[in-house]
Write a structure and sequence with these properties.
9 helices; alpha/beta; Rossmann fold; eight-stranded mixed sheet
């Protein structure tokens, strides 16, 4: 597993393959804004800038940071101007530069996630917000079983595991989105290896897994349930990590 994931390779398809219903994005942004209230916010791992844009629309001054220049180009196309290319474990900002920070779907990608937490603690003096997402059914888990990695763990830390180490200051009510989902739609995403967990899977193992899944799921439609939960920590509490 590589030490860093650079999303340049999926920048062109990121919005399509990590689709976030607008009502969910608005709901999460409202929750974040209710805690932050005002001030300067670091979006660590800003990607294409959808969260930065949503927070900026709520009168927060957001600075987006990402390793991928191509992802930042797409954020810039949204009209976002405060964007910096850099690494999460070496934030190019002075101490206490920000009031708050967000890190959405980032911590599980970093083998040295604690270094990022240390950096967030250094540059931020308010709150850190992140989200966890759950899917039912979890076709991606079925893929992992096919390639013999049913017990695959992330290189970094999951949000719930961080919460077990340090209790969040706030856990917001979950936001649930249901829709009918054709199995082929998700299989197409898996087939093109758009997810980071697939990038090190051999072509042979990938092809076998996809052939099995397509054979088993062809023509099926599921009641898809996606659930998001926003967790917020006081940065001061994270010094114990």
């Amino acid at each position: 597993m590589p030490a860093r994931f650079n999303f340049d390779r999926v920048a062109d398809v990121y919005e399509e393959t990590r689709r976030l219903p607008p009502v969910v994005l608005d709901g999460l942004a409202e929750q974040m804004a209710s805690v932050f209230e005002r001030g300067r916010v670091l979006d660590a791992g800003a990607g294409t800038g959808r969260y930065a844009e949503a927070l900026a629309a709520r009168d927060l001054a957001v600075v987006g940071l990402d390793l991928s220049r191509q992802m930042l180009d797409r954020a810039r196309a949204r009209g976002l101007g405060r964007l910096v290319q850099g690494e999460m474990i070496r934030l190019p900002f002075r101490d206490d530069a920000f009031d708050h920070a967000i890190a959405i779907h980032i911590l599980h990608l970093l083998p040295d996630w604690w270094a990022m937490i240390d950096e967030v603690v250094r540059v931020t003096h308010g709150f850190l917000a992140t989200t966890r997402e759950m899917r039912e059914p979890d076709i991606h888990r079925w893929y992992d079983e096919k390639i013999g990695l049913a017990d695959r763990t992330s290189p970094g830390i999951e949000e719930e595991d961080l919460a077990a180490r340090v209790a969040p200051a706030v856990r917001f009510p979950r936001i649930v989105w249901r829709e009918a989902m054709a199995a082929e739609a998700y299989l197409d995403l898996l087939g093109s290896k758009t997810f980071t967990s697939q990038w090190q899977v051999s072509d042979e193992a990938h092809a076998r897994a996809m052939a099995d899944l397509r054979g088993e799921l062809a023509g099926k439609t599921f009641d898809s349930k996606r659930t998001w939960e926003l967790l917020v920590w006081r940065v001061e509490d994270l010094r114990a990590i």
